[in-house]
Amino acid sequence: MQIANPIYDVVFKYMMEDNAVAKIVVSSIIGEEILELEPKPQEHTREKEKIKGEIPNLTVYRLDFSAKIKLPDGEKKVIVIEMQKAELPTDIMRFRRYLGEQYIDSENRITDNEEIEAMQIYAIYFLGKDLGIYDTPVLSVSPEVKDVSTGEIIGEKNKFIEGLNHKSWIVQISCLKARRRNELEQLLSVFDQSNRTSDHHILNVREEDFSEKFRPIVRRLKGAASSSTVKKQMKEEDEIFKYLRDAARVEANKMLKEKEKTIEENKKTIEENKKALAENKKTIEEKDKSLAENKKTIEENKKTIEEKDREIAELKRQLNL
Question: Which of 66, 193, 229, 240 is such that its CA lies 20 to 30 A from the CA of 257?
């Protein structure tokens, strides 16, 4: 079966616009049952700095949801943020800035019996490049509460702590190859880039490799593969990232040339300084030689004076006889 490649933002968006599919994906990643999943405004467009030619608009695609999660003793509401395609050097700062915006957003709270409760933030990242942590397709980062004196982990939940700390899940797409150790890795195999065809927009998968509860995801991606609109947008996305890569390459080459020029100028300055030092050394050696000669002359003059003094003293002695 051929499916559209969900590493593309447009395909990921298409997949997650189906609420039932989105619930399956998010619930499987966070490992908690989702009762309700309500999408928030999805897209934010920013302009790239003009390097050469026209400035393309780059859509930084984030999926934001408000989710109601089932707990053993009830339920809770959280903000789920999903960010797709982290490949540019500025991504970490972009994620930090966006998380900060979510923390200060007054909408991310619940009012219950006139008591205001801050919703905990769940952040899910799909990374196009690994973190240097290999053979681990999915990383879970959760705040751990400890008794500082004993080191004992405190298991009780606390709204104050949850309101000030967020949970994160990081999917390293490059580590998904042939990893199917559990249901989550089975689901995420729809991102496995080793299944790409000669057309990188399309992946080859077998529907029977997915459990029945995950097959709606595969069918949704199959639908995306046959959509002419999605195909066109994938090509546009390719063009955007090609532009960014080319622009980054141009900028890198420019910086390299400037660095090489600086190195050559520094080498020239060093050679000139070496020459000046050699000349200074020669001058110092000549001065040292001159000083030595002057010292010798002074010593000889001193010796002559001493001999004259002796002669004068002898003449005085003879005159006094």
Answer: 240
Question: What is the pTM (predicted TM-score) of this model?
Answer: 0.69
**Domain ranges, residue 218:** 2-226
| Cβ atoms 22, 251 nearer than 8 A | no
- Counting beta carbons within 10 angstroms of the beta carbon of residue 180, is it exposed (0 to 12), middle (13 to 18) or buried (19 or more)? middle
Name residue 2's amino acid: Q
320 in a structural domain = no
| Number of domains observed in the structure of the chain | 1
Give the C-alpha separation, 250 to 244, whole Å. 10
Closest residue by Cα to residue 118 from 134, 130, 106, 126: 106
Q: Which residues have a Cβ under 8 Å from the Cβ of 133 and sit 6 or more positions away?
A: 139, 172
Residue 295 lies in a domain: no
For the segment 14-54, what is each residue's pLDDT rounded down to a tens digit?
999 999 999 999 999 999 999 999 887 655 444 444 434 44
Q: Element (H or E) spanning 233, and its range? A: helix 228-319
What are the two backbone dihedrals, phi and then psi, of residue 285, each rounded to the nearest 5 degrees? -65, -40
Question: Helix, strand, coil proportions of the chain in percent (round to 5)?
Answer: 50, 25, 25
In a domain, 128, yes or no: yes
| Cα–Cα distance, 206 to 226 (Å, whole number) | 17
CA distances 137 to 7, 120, 220, 283, Å, are 15, 24, 23, 69
